[in-house]
Write a structure and sequence with these properties.
By secondary structure, this protein is of the alpha+beta class. The protein contains three helices and 13 strands, in the order αβαββββββββββββα. Strand 9 and strand 10 form a beta hairpin.
């Protein structure tokens, strides 16, 4: 138990250290629990309650082929077709008691998930098809040209589904996330949240305000607002 706790702490520390070098987007590596997956990610991402992505596939065959996931923000596009299944009905195991929808890559070893416009955070769990411990690498990309750098996790194929998450900073939007592994895999428990409108417009407002401050005041007097912008 002590070893497991130290491993989780070291994984979380790695995520924070990686984020320091990539200011526009921060990657987070959790584990197979909700406490160090969804719950911990909710503590660090700044955009509030996240929407759980559900495709609506009923348990059991026939399985459904999907190329996108519907969300209230717009569709998340998949770079390759995934097969919608349920844990214990088409996909053998997962973790932390989850038995809902998962999406199998149909033999693919990597996939890119492209966000709709204006997304601030996205997270998910993945599990390899192989019943062994497999290296996964996930990278998030932001609209300002930055990326998270490779976020790495070694994930067990038997009841070991583990968490990754990405969120942006400084008004940038999350554009896409790339996941690769040394095995085909399933992804599930995806969540998404948009950047609130004021945060998206802050960077656009600042140049206009600067131009306004350099104009000569009119006879009636002029007013201007300066919005503080956090880098």
């Amino acid at each position: 138990m002590r070893t497991s706790q130290l491993l989780r702490a070291a994984t979380a520390a790695t995520a924070v250290m990686t984020s320091c070098a990539h200011a526009g987007i921060i990657g987070f590596v959790g584990d197979s629990t909700l406490e160090w997956g969804w719950d911990k990610f909710d503590e660090v991402q700044p955009y509030g309650e996240m929407e759980v992505i559900l495709n609506g596939h009923e348990p059991g065959p026939p399985f459904e082929l999907v190329d996108a996931w519907p969300t209230s923000c717009g569709p998340v596009a998949l770079s390759l077709t995934h097969d919608a299944r349920h844990v214990q009905q088409g996909w053998a195991t997962w973790s932390h008691g989850y038995t809902g929808e998962v999406f199998y890559t149909l033999g693919g070893l990597e996939a890119t998930y492209t966000m709709p416009p204006g997304i601030g955070a996205f997270d998910f769990y993945v599990e390899p098809n192989a019943f062994s411990i497999i290296k996964f690498t996930a990278v998030g990309y932001a609209s300002d040209g930055t990326d998270s750098g490779p976020m790495v996790s070694w994930i067990a194929g038997a009841s070991g589904a583990s968490h990754f998450g990405f969120y942006t900073t400084g008004g940038a939007a999350l554009t896409h996330v790339h996941v690769s592994a040394y095995s085909d895999f399933a992804i599930g428990e995806m969540r998404i949240v948009a950047i609130p409108a004021p945060a998206m417009t802050a960077c656009l407002a600042i140049p206009a305000l600067r131009r306004q401050r350099h104009r000569r005041p009119r006879a009636m007097g002029g007013t201007g607002r300066i919005r503080e912008h956090s880098p």
